[in-house]
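Submission checklist for the structure archive. All mandatory fields must be present; incomplete records are returned to the submitter.

[x] Identifier: 50S ribosome-binding GTPase
[x] Organism: Candidatus Rikenella faecigallinarum
[x] Residue count: 370
[x] Sequence attached
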Amino acid sequence: MGRDTATHIGFYGLMNVGKSTLVNRLTGQQTVIVSAEAGTTTDPVRRSYELTDYGPVVLVDTAGVDDTQSELGQLRVERSLQTLTEVDVAVVLLYGMEPCTEEQRLLDTVQANEIPTVILPCRAAGLSAEEVWQRIRQAIPHPSQTLPPFFGDRTIAAGDVLLLVCPIDSAAPAGRLILPQVQALRAALDLHAVAVTVQPDELPQALTQWRPRLIITDSQVFREVTEVVKKRCPEVEVTSFSVLLADLKGDKTLYTEGLQAVDRLRAGDRVLIIENCSHQVTCDDIGRSKIPGWLQEYTGIESLEFVFVSGRDPLPAELHTTPGYFALAVQCGGCVATRRMVQARIRAAHRNGVPITNYGMLIRKMRVRP
């Protein structure tokens, strides 16, 4: 499934405590540069790795949390601590038998984020790579025990037909499918379901040949797909990849509550659009172009102001410091983010009184006629 659902393991501690050395030992490769010079690691380094009898993991090597003697060093520390929103387990290396002030502050921050923690001595001295892996395994359950089923609470039986509607436009990457489509196909294979993939123009033909158990569409053609299905097989449920991800990684209850704020938007209100991926913006961009346009059309308010956050960039400071600065936040499906990262952003919005919803649920509200 790639990095999106892989367990993320973060390595934290003071400068030169052996974080990068340990990552190299665990992977058996020169994954990251190591040096006797303090501060070698600057930005977080992520390395995908296949752990036997467990599955894919991502190792996140970070800068020392005591690199605070310069403005640049403070930025490194800030960037390192930001990774706590995405990791599933924190491996903390200590210089001595007891944590010093900076190490205790780090442990307190990890605990505040409710992250399972593995504490190791400097450079994991006296421990083999397998012993360290064993401690990490004990700290976190297998992903199959923590991630909800991809199709939610729907009963998908072997042989059921799942119809995937996947438009190809200027935003679709050449030569591959976007990640939610790949996830749906893999989930269908795991269930021994029959996955049929079409573009919107081929949907009518597909419905003459197949009677699907479920139709999953890209959110941008939700209206068009729903109208075709209502005419030909109204008993078949239509959902979107983004709505499925709302259950898988988000908070459906808070998303549903957040939808109510759409009808309360007023002229000049700010809407925060949260994208978890980084990509070149095109005229067909769902988050930067289509959702803003549809919101203006749905509300009749052209003066809405849109603020965008991409990738792992932090949420705007105004979200935390200025009550009422944002009238609504809209979170993408989060296909390339860990569940912890999506949940952290949802909690941040909710904690600061900002209604939050999800791309797919918002598009369904705006585009699908009752």
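[x] Structure attached
Curator remark: Residues 295 and 366 are 7 Å apart (CA to CA). The chain has three domains: 7-146, 161-245, 251-367.
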